[in-house]
């Protein structure tokens, strides 16, 4: 809640611009004036366009002159006079209207304009009158006076502003005048009680008499006031702080010069506002809304930085950092407001004001900020840093009252077209919260016309709706803000081009749940080692890192600071040949930003250290990133950790999870030690147990059908996997953690740290593919290498042929094909349906290709007859074949992927594992069909695999005591080394194992001994950076120092990918994975995997030195990386053999046969034009129409006019299809929007036309008019633009098809609501039985025997 302010605000001893900043904010908020500061990059010409922005500069000039007290007191009296004329609510309840002693707040726009008119009049008259800043303002009951010496130079009269007061002219700053940013102000400092007490002071005294000014005795009333009989003649003195010692009492007063002015505002000339409203709200409220508190375009933090940086002497540091740099002195959680004079007793009543006699002429004139922030660097470095500060676009202040989502979308479109926001000329009004209206207004703006690109993709409607609510959430998901920077190839303009991405929904992370998702921004930037960044020059990397970490970043009216960085997925740019190798790969970093401050943020309350939880989007509390990290990591309790390890733990707070149960402190069991082997190895690294009751509660919250064996999750500082305790049969709720899980010391006080967060859970297992990385190790460890190679090739050939035959057979029958589509869909398809509780659509068809095929099949289309549907089937098969050929993912029926867990009961012996299935695991090829494995050897591995010992042969046994833990593979807790550690150094925090029990592979495999791993630290190959956080204690800004070090390390080029590729080539050239050099490279890779957490230092120079020691020349690329075999004779390497001898020939042959099978389909469908044909018959016969036209009879029937105009509209939209050059989703959204705008022509006025557009049918796109449009368009463009026809009006065409097919079958179509359709799935038994019947085969009823049937069978036997 905003502090309650009396009419007089706090006044510092020496007015400064930093103090003015605070005064300006409080003054505006006290009266709901909504005044804002002009952005730094807003030119004077722009300021004139937004007249209200000029109040900032005008009031600042008066503040520095010392006239602000007079202005405020005069304004308060005038506001009372204005307020007395406002229409009050009759019989208002007590407290509804503001008390006379409260600041009089505007409660409507007309009232605000009246108050602004009053302020204009006061400033104009003060400028036209010679006023002394040392005149006295004395409260009616004042009797004390203090002295202060007046400098003679301050008696000179200043120039009056020009009549065009609405813009403060830019003046040059004199050599000795202070800069506009010479003062300091901590944006997060709480104002101490002494500040508030100063607000009530009404006495100021001068050290010597001031000469009277005869102009003040003029008969003309100041401000247009008349001295009526009732006017008060009170005299008040303007306060001036005494000349006193820094800590001593003020000197005795000598004499007070007073100026007499009228105290009545009865006849003041104010702007007339015709429209007045009854005051319904509490105008005296001191808790302004977020819109009311948007007083500044830039936060206090930015202003302080401008002050601090420019204050540095140029002679000492001519290359000073950016004026936008985060000060090393800044501490967002520490108050540093300078001490103020002791408070005096407040006046009994609000004081009136007097006009000082003189205005000082030597008060420095502040230079107007230019469009580019001032820099103090030289040469290329200065120019590049200026380009960095030009990245963030300016948002005009008139968008301040717009919701954040509206600001985001408008700016996103402007950035897409490269248009300045000031040039949009789009004013905000509440209707723009409707996404369709907003985009219609944007598309209508003249500035976007004639651009060489189309509009970007729209944010999804569900994300838009969620962003409009107070919490930025939608059910279990939150709105995510993401953006990207791409290097600007031009040498002018910003160094990077900013792109805002469409809003999307995703799971929340802990930080977003605690502080609000809208306060977090994810920015993807090119890696510092990428060529795009190197093109900027050698010094660019340091400048970019410094800009990211130390600077404030101003975007969308908020102040953002970075606090974490991690590698992002590389961006691949392909050649024109999409099947060719990528021509360019851009490695990227993902930087996380936190909104510390903003135009609609409030200050932390006294005693508050963190922003309150659950704040609405528009009413956040200011908080620095230091507090953010302290809340998450509880840094004071973890200063002994290394900087890099502690920094890596931030990732746990950013892990996207599903929150479930809040566990109470007494339900947490923190185990003091891990389970250790006889040699001291941790046997349960990353895993613990939860109670059966807690597992059930988590299942219920996640709405899971079955109770999983365990969950991968996060809990406070603990991460890993939690399995159900098989010995717990109670309903108790408890959870345990082990030291290997706890990544920092957490007190578990905050309930967000006691919330069990689920990342994933164990699920039903299915057959898996054999990863390409495992093939060289399988060949190396094979008893018979040729047999292993042949067997793997056979699996690939049989798997591919079986899949193609199944698809061809299924396409003969739509019901069977519908089942095939379902069985060959990815698991993400179901996840997306669950999120949205419907099948997501893009335009007129489902978003997912498999859903498109299922939707058209459900509507009655035949995949062998409709080419659009058969093309989807062909593309799906082609993609699977190409993926198989590229990745060589050989499907092995008797294999699966499962979470690795530990046997806490200790009943499994070393090299024994337990694996049970929640449902019967069946493999048609081998005939395997069981619910558990027992008494057989199995292979277990974890990818990536590098050492020969990374695949282990172990014994699968079934233990009844572990039988309830299904769909996870249980490893023993016995032995000297954990089995997980043998598999590429794995652990149990969520690692997944590949498990294979195929006899032809397992029986031809023998284990390798664990290798003798070289000590790369001792050899000097790698080093470690291990400075602890506690070593940073004592630095001016420890948070910034912490992040600077962490960002610098984490943004260095990671050579993991380069080393992995080299090792692949090296081992291929030597045809060995077990020699000393291969082991050394594998060890290096295992170190680099944990580089960020362990602080491993391995540079380009180190890598070049190591390569030179391994081989004089780098090995060539493996032949399997090429499209065709280029070696001599037949391939010998297992991957070459599988790709070129088996995979490529099989894929090519099968695709040829499949294309021939689909060759009879066509685009036309007679059912889809019948709807149009019906309306076409309502026209006159064609011969009659031509005859009328020949005779000059131009009158047409209603339907002739309607169809003619509809044809024109369809042509206009269809012609847009080939012209669009944007992203696919953006193209669909744009054309679909145009399609929806087609409505019946207004050239006819017929009730018949209106009758074909019932409102309820129009909303879902299935009115008669919608069906007519679709049918007509299909007839016109089914062959020319088939993709356009289906993606834009597929929903209507599917509806028409279902009507016609149902009519022919004499059965009505069945309607389903969206949620039911999303959960529907084909019946396997029904589809196969029906297919067998159509093939003339015998059909057997293999239904399970139920009670009724069992009774019937018993009766028959009797």
Structure write-up:
Helices cover 35% and strands 12% of the residues. The strands form eight sheets. Strands 3, 4, 5, 6, 7, 8, 9 and 10 form an eight-stranded mixed β-sheet that branches. The chain contains 43 helices and 30 strands. It has 1358 residues and is of the alpha+beta class. It is globular and about 100 Å long. A hairpin with a 7-residue loop joins strand 9 (558-574) and strand 10 (582-598). The longest helix is centred in the middle third of the chain and has 26 residues, at 785-810.
Task: Detail the topology: elements first, then pairings.
Elements: H1 17-30, H2 44-49, H3 54-65, H4 68-84, H5 109-127, H6 193-198, E1 235-236, E2 259-260, H7 300-311, H8 379-389, H9 404-417, H10 435-444, H11 461-468, E3 473-474, E4 477-487, E5 496-500, E6 504-506, H12 510-515, E7 520-526, H13 531-534, H14 540-550, E8 553-555, E9 558-574, E10 582-598, H15 625-633, H16 643-648, H17 650-653, E11 658-662, E12 668-670, E13 687-690, H18 692-702, E14 710-715, E15 718-724, E16 735-737, E17 755-761, E18 768-770, H19 775-780, H20 785-810, H21 814-823, H22 827-836, E19 841-842, E20 845-846, H23 849-858, H24 867-887, E21 890-892, E22 895-902, E23 912-923, E24 928-932, E25 936-941, E26 951-956, E27 968-971, H25 979-982, E28 992-996, H26 999-1002, E29 1023-1024, H27 1038-1050, H28 1056-1070, H29 1076-1089, H30 1091-1094, E30 1096-1097, H31 1100-1110, H32 1134-1157, H33 1170-1176, H34 1182-1190, H35 1198-1219, H36 1224-1236, H37 1247-1251, H38 1255-1259, H39 1264-1277, H40 1282-1304, H41 1314-1318, H42 1324-1334, H43 1347-1357
Parallel strand pairs: 4-7, 12-16, 13-15, 22-27, 23-26
Antiparallel strand pairs: 1-2, 3-4, 4-5, 4-6, 7-10, 8-9, 9-10, 11-17, 14-15, 14-17, 18-21, 19-20, 22-28, 23-24, 23-27, 25-26, 25-28, 29-30
């Amino acid at each position: 809640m905003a502090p309650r302010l009396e009419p007089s605000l706090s006044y510092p001893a020496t007015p400064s611009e930093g103090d003015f900043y605070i005064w300006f904010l409080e003054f505006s908020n006290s009266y709901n004036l909504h005044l804002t500061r002009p952005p730094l990059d807003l030119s004077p010409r722009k300021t004139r366009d937004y007249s209200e922005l000029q109040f900032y500069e005008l009031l600042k000039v008066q503040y520095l002159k010392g006239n602000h007290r007079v202005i405020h007191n005069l304004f308060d009296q005038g506001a009372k006079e204005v307020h007395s004329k406002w229409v009050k609510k009759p019989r208002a309840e007590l407290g509804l209207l503001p008390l006379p002693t409260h600041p009089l707040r505007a409660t409507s726009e007309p009232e605000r304009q009246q108050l602004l008119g009053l302020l204009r009049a006061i400033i104009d008259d003060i400028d036209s009158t010679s006023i002394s800043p040392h005149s006295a303002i004395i409260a009616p009951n004042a009797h004390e006076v203090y002295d202060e010496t007046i400098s003679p130079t301050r008696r000179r009269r200043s120039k009056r502003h020009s009549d065009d007061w609405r813009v403060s002219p830019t003046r040059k700053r004199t050599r000795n005048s202070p800069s506009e940013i010479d003062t300091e102000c901590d944006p997060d400092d709480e104002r101490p009680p002494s500040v508030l007490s100063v607000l009530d002071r009404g006495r100021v005294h001068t050290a010597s008499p001031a000469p009277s000014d005869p102009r003040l005795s003029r008969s003309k009333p100041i401000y247009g006031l008349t001295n009526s009989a009732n006017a008060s003649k009170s005299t008040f003195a303007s306060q001036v702080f005494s000349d006193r010692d820094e800590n001593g009492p003020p000197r005795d007063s000598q004499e007070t010069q007073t100026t007499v002015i009228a105290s009545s505002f009865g006849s003041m000339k104010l702007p007339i506002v015709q429209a007045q409203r009854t005051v319904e709200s509490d105008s005296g409220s001191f808790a302004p809304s977020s819109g009311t508190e948007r007083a500044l375009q830039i936060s206090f933090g930015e202003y302080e930085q401008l002050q601090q940086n420019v204050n540095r002497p140029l002679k000492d540091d001519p290359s000073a950092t950016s004026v936008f740099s985060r000060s090393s002195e800044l501490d967002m959680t520490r108050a540093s407001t300078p001490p103020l004079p002791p408070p005096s007793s407040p006046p009994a009543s609000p004081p009136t004001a007097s006009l000082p006699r003189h205005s000082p002429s030597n008060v420095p004139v502040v230079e107007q900020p230019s469009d580019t922030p001032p820099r103090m660097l030289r040469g290329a470095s200065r120019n590049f840093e200026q380009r960095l500060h030009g990245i963030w676009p300016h948002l005009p202040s008139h968008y301040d009252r717009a919701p954040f989502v509206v600001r985001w979308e408008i700016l996103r479109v402007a950035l897409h077209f490269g248009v300045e926001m000031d040039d949009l000329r789009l004013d905000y009004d509440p209707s723009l919260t409707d996404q369709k209206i907003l985009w219609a207004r944007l598309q209508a703006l003249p500035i976007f016309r004639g651009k060489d690109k189309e509009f970007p993709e729209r944010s999804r409607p569900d994300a838009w709706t969620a962003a409009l609510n107070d919490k930025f959430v939608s059910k279990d998901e939150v709105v995510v803000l993401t953006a990207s920077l791409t290097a600007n190839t031009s040498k002018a303009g910003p160094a990077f081009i900013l792109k805002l991405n469409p809003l999307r929904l995703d799971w929340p992370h802990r930080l977003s749940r605690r502080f609000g998702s809208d306060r977090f921004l994810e920015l993807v930037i090119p890696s510092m080692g990428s060529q795009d960044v190197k093109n900027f020059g050698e010094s660019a990397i340091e400048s970019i890192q410094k800009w990211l970490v130390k600077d404030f970043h101003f975007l969308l009216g908020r102040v953002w600071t970075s606090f974490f960085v991690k590698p992002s997925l590389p961006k691949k740019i392909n050649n024109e040949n999409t099947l060719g190798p990528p021509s360019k790969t851009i490695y990227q970093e993902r930087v996380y930003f936190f909104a510390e401050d903003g135009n609609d943020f409030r200050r932390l309350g006294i005693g508050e250290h963190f922003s309150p939880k659950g704040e609405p989007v528009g009413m956040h509390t200011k908080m620095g990133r230091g507090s953010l990290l302290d809340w998450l990591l509880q840094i004071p309790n973890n200063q002994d950790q290394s900087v890099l390890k502690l920094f890596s733990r931030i990732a746990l707070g950013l892990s996207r999870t599903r929150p479930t149960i809040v566990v109470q402190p007494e339900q947490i069991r923190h185990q003091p030690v891990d389970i250790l082997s006889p040699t001291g190895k941790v046997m349960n690294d990353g895993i613990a147990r939860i109670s059966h009751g807690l597992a059930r509660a988590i299942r219920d919250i996640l709405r899971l059908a079955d109770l999983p064996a365990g969950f991968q999750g996060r809990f406070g500082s603990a991460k890993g996997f939690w399995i159900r305790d098989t010995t717990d049969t109670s309903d108790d709720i408890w959870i345990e953690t082990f030291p290997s899980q706890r990544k920092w010391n957490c007190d578990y006080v905050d309930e967000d740290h006691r919330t069990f967060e689920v990342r994933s859970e164990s699920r039903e297992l299915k057959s898996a593919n054999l990863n390409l990385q495992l093939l060289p190790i399988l060949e190396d460890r094979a008893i018979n290498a040729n047999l292993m190679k042949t067997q793997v090739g056979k699996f690939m050939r049989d798997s591919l042929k079986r899949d193609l035959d199944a698809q061809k057979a299924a396409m003969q029958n739509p019901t069977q094909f519908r089942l095939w589509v379902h069985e060959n869909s990815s698991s993400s398809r179901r996840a997306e349906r669950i999120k949205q509780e419907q099948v997501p659509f893009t335009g007129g068809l489902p978003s997912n290709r498999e859903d498109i095929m299922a939707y058209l099949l459900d509507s009655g289309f035949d995949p062998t007859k409709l080419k659009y549907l058969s093309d989807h089937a062909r593309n799906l098969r082609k993609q699977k074949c190409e993926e198989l050929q590229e990745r060589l993912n050989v499907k092995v029926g008797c294999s699966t992927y499962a979470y690795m867990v530990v046997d806490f009961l200790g009943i499994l012996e070393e090299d024994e594992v337990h694996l049970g299935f929640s449902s019967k695991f069946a493999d048609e090829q081998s005939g395997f069909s069981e619910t558990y494995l027992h008494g057989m050897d199995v292979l277990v591995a974890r990818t990536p695999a590098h050492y020969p010992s990374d695949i282990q042969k172990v014994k699968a046994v079934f233990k009844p005591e572990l039988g309830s833990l299904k769909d996870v593979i249980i490893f023993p807790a016995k032995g000297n080394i954990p089995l997980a550690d043998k598999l590429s150094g794995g652990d149990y925090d969520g690692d997944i194992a590949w498990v294979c029990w195929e006899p032809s592979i397992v029986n031809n495999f023998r284990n390798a001994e664990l290798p003798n791993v070289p000590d790369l630290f001792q050899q000097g190959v790698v080093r470690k950076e291990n400075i602890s956080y506690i070593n940073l204690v004592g630095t001016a800004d420890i948070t910034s120092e912490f992040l600077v070090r962490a960002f610098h390390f984490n943004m260095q080029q990671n050579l993991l990918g380069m080393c992995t590729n080299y090792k692949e080539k090296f081992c291929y050239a030597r045809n060995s994975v077990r020699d000393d050099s291969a082991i050394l490279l594998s060890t290096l890779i295992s170190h680099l995997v944990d580089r960020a957490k362990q602080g491993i230092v391995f540079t380009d120079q180190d890598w070049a030195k190591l390569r030179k020691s391994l081989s004089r020349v780098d090995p060539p690329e493996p032949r399997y990386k090429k499209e065709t075999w280029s070696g001599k004779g037949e391939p010998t390497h297992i991957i070459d053999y599988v790709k070129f001898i088996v995979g490529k020939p099989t894929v090519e042959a099968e695709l040829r046969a499949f294309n021939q099978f689909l060759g009879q389909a066509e685009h036309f469908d007679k059912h889809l034009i019948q709807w149009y044909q019906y309306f076409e018959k309502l026209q006159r016969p064609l011969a009659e129409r031509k005859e009328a036209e020949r005779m000059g009879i131009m009158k047409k029937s209603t339907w002739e006019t309607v169809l003619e105009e509809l044809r024109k509209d369809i042509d206009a939209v269809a012609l847009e299809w080939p012209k669009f050059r944007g992203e696919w989703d953006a193209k669909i959204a744009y054309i679909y929007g145009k399609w929806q705008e087609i409505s019946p022509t207004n050239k006819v006025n017929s009730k018949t036309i209106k009758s074909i557009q019932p409102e309820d049918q129009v909303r879902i796109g299935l009115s008669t008019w919608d069906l007519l449009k679709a049918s007509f368009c299909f007839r016109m463009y089914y062959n020319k633009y088939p993709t356009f026809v289906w993606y834009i009006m597929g929903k209507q065409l599917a509806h028409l098809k279902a009507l016609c097919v149902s009519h022919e079958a004499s059965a009505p179509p069945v309607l389903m609501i969206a949620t039911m359709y999303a959960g529907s799935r084909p019946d396997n038994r029904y589809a196969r039985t029906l297919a067998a019947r159509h093939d003339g085969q015998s059909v057997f009823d293999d239904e399970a025997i139920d009670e009724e049937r069992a009774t019937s069978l018993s009766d028959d036997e009797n």
